[in-house]
Amino acid sequence: MGWKEYLEDYEAREMAEYETFKRKISNGTFTSKDIYPQAIRFPEIKRPISRTFSIQDISQDDNIWAIIPLGGSTIQGLPPFPEHMLKSSLGFSISEIPEVISFVKETGKLQFTLRDYPTKYLECPFLEPIFRELNPPVGVNLPPTAFIEEKDFRRYMAEFNKFCESKVFPHILKWSREETGATTNGEILIGQYRHTYTFLRALGYDSIVNQIETYSLSGQVNELAAIMMVSGTLIIQPAFEPIARSFSYDTALYQSAVGFANMHKLEMPKPTFPVEIGEYIIKKLVHCAPSLDACKQLVFNYQDQDLYKLHEALAEGIVANNPDVISKASKDFSLVMDEIWNDKSLLYKVNGLKVGVPVLFGVVGGLAAGLSGGIGGVLAGLGISATDKFIGGINEGVAEKIAKIKSSNWEVVVYDFKNKYKLHSMDKKIGK
After folding, report:
1. What span, in angstroms and rounded, lies between the C-alpha atoms of 78 and 114?
2. 232-280: per-residue pLDDT in tens?
3. Per-residue pLDDT reduced to its tens digit, 141-165
4. Lowest-confidence range among 31-35, 242-246, 345-349, 373-377?
5. Strand 73-78 relative to strand 49-53: parallel, antiparallel, unpaired?
6. How many CB atoms sit inside 10 A of residue 64's CB?
7. Is residue 14 part of a domain?
8. Is-above-0.90 flag for pTM?
9. Residue 363 domain-assigned (yes or no)
10. Contact (Cβ atoms closer than 8 angstroms) between residue 99 and residue 291
């Protein structure tokens, strides 16, 4: 079967599965367990499941290999981009596709969905191994008509087309021809914009809808693109994402969204800095640029749960140490994370407590005799039992328990991570 016939057959099967899903909605048999695509479509998928976002998925700053170790499975859209855009859009070259497929099958850490209907990939035969080996589903979810009347859906689509037909659509198609030699990518982008507008209109985001209309009619395409990007990724996609429950936004997107969110009274998600933190962790633990090889080393050398906790701790520490980190005037991310990573205050507390606590409380004899009543009762309440030994001072295990009580959570997690993987003694080797 040729590539064209294969894609036609692939699309027919995908649409049949999706139509079954839609019929359950229309005939009232739809339940919370009915989603499309089903999780079984993804090999070795594991939670927590994250979805990556960037501007049209071609942001050079959004390195997928830096993000992947920080989640259970990371879902990446597979666009029908030409061959020369593969590396910049997905982070790997054609020659690396077999290795990527093996990585997906072995770990489940990376998953793909199709960004368009299969027949739109006719000019992408280099993606055939991914299609045949991984069987990625079309990345759709609830159809608009599941919660919008058909007549309203058509009216909203017509509205948006009217706003954009004279200035916006020609500009986007021209950009697509100049960048890729075809209008395919521009048509995909227009479809995404229509989808975003329709959902915003149906959900009652009137102030955003009015702003979209203003920018569209005046031909302010860059301003319109910014609104669509922020609205689509912060409002629409999270609301209707069928599988993922966490979302990886690059910091550039988050920065552009702050003012927009304030203007329209939107609640911003807590910043987690997956790209910057992922790149920093790779630099500290693997010593090479974010890549498939670097990602593999992190995944195979460090336990998943430890990396999840470390990511959360570093994100918490960044905000705690530099509240203005999202603003352009803030310190460089690497400097902020260096301060967090190299912070030895908890280590000093532990070392000091090993001798200092018994002297401070004057209860060396009491502690040695057993923990009961008085300060002993307090320590027992912290999980310190009579089995803890005190010889010439308080031992390290007890000191850690006490020191952690008055330390920030991010300090504790980073301290424990470095202890577990014996990184405290490697600080001089891994850099400051």
Report:
1. 5
2. 888 887 877 777 767 877 777 787 788 888 888 888 888 888 888 999 9
3. 666 666 778 889 889 999 999 999 9
4. 373-377
5. parallel
6. 22
7. yes
8. no
9. yes
10. no
**Structure-token pair, residue 58:** 């071609």
Query: In the structure encoding, which two tokens stand for residue 264, read together?
Result: 């329209």
Report d(CA 428, CA 430) in Å as an integer: 6
350 neighbors 400 (Cβ within 8 angstroms): yes
Distance of CA 369 to the CA centre of its chain: 52
In a domain, 62, yes or no: yes
Would residue 105 count as lying in a domain?
A: yes
Q: Radius of gyration of the chain from Cα atoms?
A: 26
Both structure tokens of 115: 């960004």
- Which tokens belong to 325? 């980190």
Domain match, 46 and 160 both: no
Decide which of 218, 240, 262 is a domain's last residue: 240
Q: Is the pLDDT of residue 432 over 50?
A: no
Range of the domain at 402: 345-409
Note the pLDDT of residue 7. Answer: 97
Record the tokens describing residue 73, joined without a space. 């499975």
What's the whole-number mean pLDDT along residues 222-240? 85
What letter represents residue 265's amino acid? K
